[in-house]
Amino acid sequence: MHTLYKKGFGGMEMGKNLIKFTENAKIQFEEVKSHLEVPEPFALQVIVEDYKAGKVEFSFNFKPAASTDEFNMSHKGFSYIVDSMSAFYLAGSTFDYINGSFELILDPSVDFHIVGEA
Predict the structure, then answer these.
(1) What is the pLDDT of residue 2?
(2) What CATH number is associated with residue 40?
(3) What confidence tens digit (pLDDT) does each residue in 79-102 have?
(4) Residue that wins the pLDDT comparison between 106 and 46
(5) What whole-number distance in Å separates Cα of residue 7 and Cα of residue 110?
(6) N or C: which end of the chain has fewer CB within 10 A?
(7) With 60 as the cut, is the pLDDT of residue 36 above it?
(8) Which residues contact 111 (CB under 8 A, 6 or more apart)?
(9) Per DSSP, what are the bridge partners of residue 61?
């Protein structure tokens, strides 16, 4: 699992390029997919595992299609799946592969707010 630090809170807007992937990250994800012998048309699933005190922990998986509470998305031909809660925290971010590790670069112009029940 990876740990990230989120700056600030505010609002979110869904778009078709919810998450961006650098060319380097795409190549590495495809290499992992090939190494694991994941069949087509499986897509990368990005999952936020936990969020508290400004930290986001996330993981990756491969699956064939989105379930009812998830979205099939794509960035420049790279397919991925994200659930609504993960989308909330990952909006505007970019995945990159730097020094042997997947990194999530947060968009500083995207603010978030948490809506919950009292």
Answers:
(1) 33
(2) 2.60.300.12
(3) 899 888 888 778 888 889 998 888
(4) 46
(5) 9
(6) C
(7) yes
(8) 8, 9, 10, 11, 12
(9) 45
